[in-house]
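User: Thanks for the earlier help. One more: MarR family protein. Can you show the sequence and predicted structure together?

Assistant: Of course, both are below.
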Amino acid sequence: MPGGRLTQQERRQIALGLADDLPYAEIARRLDRPTSTVTREVMRNGGPTAYRADAAHRATERRAHRSTRSPGPRDAAAAPLPYGRDAGAVHAFEEVFTEVLAQSGMTTMLSRVMVALYTTDSGSLTAAELVQRLQVSPATISKSIAFLESQGLVRRERDERRRERYVVDDDVWYQSMMASAKATARIVEVAREGAGVLGPGTPASTRLENVSRFLDFVTESITRAAEQAREVLYTKPGTPAETPAAQDRTEQAGTEQAGARLDSEA
């Protein structure tokens, strides 16, 4: 497997792979490179939709040139990461996490802001800290935070120095799941109405009825599981987690209850 920096030709192959909607793993296989190398390359240079091979190559050369100069004040002030974390490993993880969130529907910028907040031990950052960390404009941070706040993914608070901080709550994923369940419940309701409109026993009616039953079953299971597992989001470091056996019993009980209800409707 080749090592060293990516060549300009390899970057052009990455760009072609992205244009063909190939997964990073497949692009990496064709280059005989680690998947993490391709992921870092793409996320460092605009993300999958904005990656340009020549621009990425020039940016890499500029970064290489900067790395050879004498350390400046900012370099000297850079503090080591807490808890003995490996900076390279953390950076690679942040890029992968950003990619996963982007694939779930967020824009790359929103994903980067969320990842920055989630990988900070305090779970909060000021606008200035986000600007410095992500190397973007204050206006970009302001716009991103406004949208994330409107979706209930972050909130604002004032610290002891009266600075506005942006916070990710432990409850975000629970609230997100419940909002999704509520939206799906509306689909169930409409599908059932459609089944009645199209006439009981007809193929179209049966299809919609099956869809409504399936989504109702899955949504109820997810809602119950989210309620049962909500306390996990508040587990503190060093707190023993629930044993796998107990988790299995909880999941099995929920599945059996939902399955029994589904059978009763059939």
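User: Great, one quick takeaway?

Assistant: Residues 203-229 form the longest helix (27 residues).
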